Amino acid sequence: MSNLLTISLAAAAVFAIAALGELLEQRAGILNVGLEGVMLLSGTFGFMVAKTTGHYLWGFLVALAIGALVGLIHGFFSITLGSNQVVNGMAIWIFGFGLTTYVGYPYTGPLGLKQFPNLLGLPPFFILALVLAGAIWFLLYRTHIGLQLRSVGENPAVAESSGIAVIRLRYLAAVLAGALVGLAGGVYSLIYNPVWSYNYLQGWGFIALALVFFSLWNPLLVLLGAVLFGVLWQLSLYPELLFPNFFSRYLWRAVPFLITVVVFVVMSTRWFSLRWGAAKPQALGLPYQRES
Amino acid sequence: MKVNVGNTTIRIERRSTLRWWQSAVASVLAVVVSLVLVGFAFLHVGASPVAVYREIIQYAFLSQYGLPQTINRAVFILLCAYAFIVPIRAGLWNIGMPGQVYAGMLAAFSVAYAFGAKTSVNAPIPGAIVIPLMVLGAMAGGALYGAIPGLLRGKLQVNEIVTTMMLNSVMLWLVAHMIREGGPFMGRTAEGEGFSLPLAARMPQLWNLPLTVYATLILAVFLSIVLAKTTIGYQIRAFGASPAAARYAGIREGFLCTFVFLLGGLFAGFAGYHYFAAVPGVYKIPKSYNDFGDFSFYGLITGLIAQNNPIAAIPVALLFGGVASGARFMQGKLRLAFGIDYALLGVLMLVIVAFQALAYYRLALERRVPAAVPQREIGESRVESPHH
Questions:
Q1: CATH (domain of B278)
Q2: Distance from CA of A128 to the nearest CA of B (A)
Q3: Within this chain, do residues B216 and B318 fall inside the same structural domain, yes or no?
Q4: Rg of the Cα trace of chain B?
Q5: Which residue of A has its CA nearest to B338?
Q6: Residue B236 placed within a domain
Q7: Which of A37, A230, B238, B367 gives the lowest tally of CB atoms within 10 Å of its CB?
């Protein structure tokens, strides 16, 4: 049972780090629906590099760098060119899925590195996720730059006229978020499930995106949601722990996805939707053109 | 932004709208650029890209084996493109094509199963009744499964991108449950794949192609008329252009969102029927059914390239059907890694979106008349605006 908890927290770390990155970016008004693609790209290239060099460090560095680069590209299209952010995100997802299917194929199979050690009995990246959640909460609500970032996501025109560099802050958020999502991709492919197969992510990026919506854009609730989904995912893999001989194991695999939809339905009730509407960054997904 | 070259100023300007031919040029250029980029992968294995593409075209469009394969794949892509096009016209994203394809496939095989199709390939079942019922079942299955995210979006404002994606995974595992480890649709001898459709329940062919191919052409005409000439088609466009204005004009949002996903899902469900119950050589739910689910995302790109026009989507789908079947052929011949067609899919997606975004920018050339050098008086300071 404690083993189940440990591996659940390892899964939670992936969800949390990706969702925290996305949250940071959405707070600045940028929507990237292509997390799945970013994570596939960073995870696959990280995996290839780690397998070739034999070192985790290089794998993680590459995952971070690829994530930041993709974040920058998404930023360029969304911020500078002002094109539809949903379209851009979709492009990144399909690009990631298509390219990694081809590029990663020769690397199909296990990573073959020594297992990453736990820290204080916990998966190390879960500890990192805890620290990140706290740090991002502190950044957003207790620092000057956090206040600026949030105002950019609420009303960029007003922020600009009060002297905030909207464009620069949005780029900063996009690149930082990309790096975090990229790291999450690396944590998945190097630590959580270090066996490459094509399209291995199975929708985790989209679940992380859903978590941001569920959290009402609060980093601490993101963390809570990530832990719940981590546990849920593990239970769906080993349902016999709770319900022996009930349903086939394939049907259980569908449960986390079904629950995501159900949570969305519950959240659309009036009590939630009022709070949801209030918490949502007002300028989310809207391009901002500086008046000349 | 502007750049001075000699006495000419090059200025980058943003257009507010695109004419149809401007976006068509952007689409065609994007396809060409993507094919060139992917051609580098052939260089990587020591083959000349030109020769490889010539062989792909030769196999996919000019050979007796390749052409039917190309058309069957193209029809699958085209139907998936329609599943994407109908909702996107209303500004909604259907990325649930895989789930809707699986739902149509399962519904079709459920009908066959109910008629005792699992017993043997020679099971004497009345094809004239079973085949139409399978088609209708597949359409209904895809439509109903598609309607769920539409209803949630229309009534409860639930983000359709996330729900369609989640429902893809739900259906993926439901199919696995049905065909693996003693599932009800598991074949009698095969491991991990569905039963083979009896001969009597297979879609008849005309000129070497299943009738679903011709039916799809009729559906294409039907869809363009619905979108262009009917009230509901107008409402869909109005809602896509401005949901707020459409609501103000009395368009019922809940109904409209459900309708577009219902209609879209119907096409995807039919695609599921076509590929698994009508294409020669398949006639079952194969082990690698998820490959075809992923393949349905070609429909998304086809829709984007065709600018959501159902008729323009036909040549685009044919091109991709050809590239896919030709690439699979070359993959074996050149020992390329698996997935060169998926690489093309990914590159295309990024390039097409980039080109369609960049098409809004144009370069304006301005000749400056060489002016007399301004007389500068001592003591006068010129302040340059930082914006220039």
A1: 1.10.3470
A2: 27
A3: yes
A4: 25
A5: A102
A6: yes
A7: B367
Q: Report the helix count and the strand count for chain A, using DSSP H and E.
A: 12, 2
Q: Do A261 and B337 touch (CB under 8 A)?
A: no
CB contact under 8 A, B353 and A273: no
What rounded mean pLDDT belongs to chain A? 87
Number of domains in chain B: 2
Domain range summary for chain A, segments of one domain joined by +: 2-279
Question: Token match 């091109």: residue?
Answer: B319
Q: Cα–Cα distance between A258 and B152 in angstroms, integer? A: 13
B385 domain-assigned:
no
Q: Report CA B290 to chain centroid distance, whole Å.
A: 16
List of chain B residues whose C-beta atoms are within 8 Å of the C-beta of residue A103: 343
Residue B333 pLDDT more than 80? Answer: no
| Range A2-279 classified under CATH 1.10.3470.10 | yes
Contact between chains at A77 and B353 (C-beta distance less than 8 A): yes
Q: Assess whether B268 and B245 both reside in one domain.
A: yes
- Does B72 lie in the same domain as B43? no
Which parts of chain A are beta strand (E)?
Answer: 109-110, 195-196
> For residue A121, with 0-12 CB atoms within 10 Å meaning exposed, 13-18 middle and 19 or more buried, which class applies?
exposed
- Assess whether B205 and B87 both reside in one domain: yes
Q: What is the ipTM of this complex?
A: 0.82
Question: Is B371 domain-assigned?
Answer: no
Q: Which residue of B has its CA nearest to A76?
A: B354
Task: State whether B146 and B294 are in the same domain.
Answer: yes
Structure token digits, residue B172: 């993926």
* Digitized pLDDT (tens) for each residue of chain A, 292 residues in all: 568 888 889 999 999 999 999 999 999 989 998 999 999 999 999 999 999 998 989 999 999 999 999 999 999 988 888 888 888 888 898 889 888 988 888 888 888 887 877 777 778 888 899 999 999 999 989 999 889 889 888 888 888 888 888 889 999 999 999 999 999 999 999 989 889 988 888 889 989 998 998 888 899 999 999 999 998 888 888 877 777 666 777 888 888 888 888 888 888 777 777 777 778 888 887 877 776 5
Residue B5: strand pairing partners: B8
Q: Do B156 and A97 make contact, defined as CB atoms within 8 angstroms?
A: no
Domain, as residue range, for B29: 1-47+337-366
> Residues for chain B: how many in total?
388
Would you place residue B379 in the very low, low, confident or very high pLDDT band (cuts 50, 70, 90)? very low
Query: Among partner residues A87, A203, A209, which is closest to B169 by beta-carbon distance?
Result: A203
Per-residue model confidence as pLDDT tens digits over A164-182:
888 899 999 999 999 999 9
